[in-house]
Input
Amino acid sequence: MSLGMAAAGGEGGGSGRSCFVLGASGETGRVLLRELLARQLFARVTLIGRRWLGLGEETGAAVEQVVVDFERLSEHAAAFRGHDVGFCCLGTTRAKAGVDGFIRVDRDYVAQAAELARAGGCKHFVLQSSRGANQRSRFLYLRVKGEVENLVQAVGFDRCTILRPAVLLCKRQESRPMEWIAQQFLGVVAWVFPTAYSIPVEMVARAMVASVLQPGKGKVEVLENGDIHKLGKAVPQQGT
Output
């Protein structure tokens, strides 16, 4: 199955439609933004973040940026109004932000943003989570991811798509030596077991795009790593 631009007339058509992206400065967010702009699925794409991003002239007038204070997010409700779809790739690491900071960013900020988006009229929320997410996990990372999944679902969007990718294969802007080593190993393993332990960040971004190009399978849809691979492949790569 291939989802072409013709499908965009329904869920993804660009005429008058608007979306926002949380976490556009991250690995998945940057690729997602390129996909959204290249496919012209939305008339307006709003990047909501804590700092202004240098994007280059190729983004055009379709992109708006809103700088917010996530510690006072309720004061920025206007940034979340009037969007049809919300994409969330927001996240940090325990090493970078500490335990409290990680929980605040990956759970609290995301949950509050979802609430503001729903109140602002957003119908479809697309959340990047993680493989193994489980609110009962003894591992902090997976527990927090499970908790935020539940919180976002409870907001009550007309449609909620949750992606649970395995280890992301990408070239990070920031240095994470141990993750780099793991990526080199998994990059080799991926040749033999392409959907088992890892996934290219480009595939995740394309799957997020594809999720708005096809009808939903229920109010809440959870996509595991293999599902993300399949959905991402359903969207033709740019230039093909």
About this structure: Residues 94-119 form the longest helix (26 residues). Confidence is low (pLDDT under 50) at residues 5-13, 188-193. The helical segments are 27-39, 94-119, 140-155, 177-192, 201-211, 225-233.
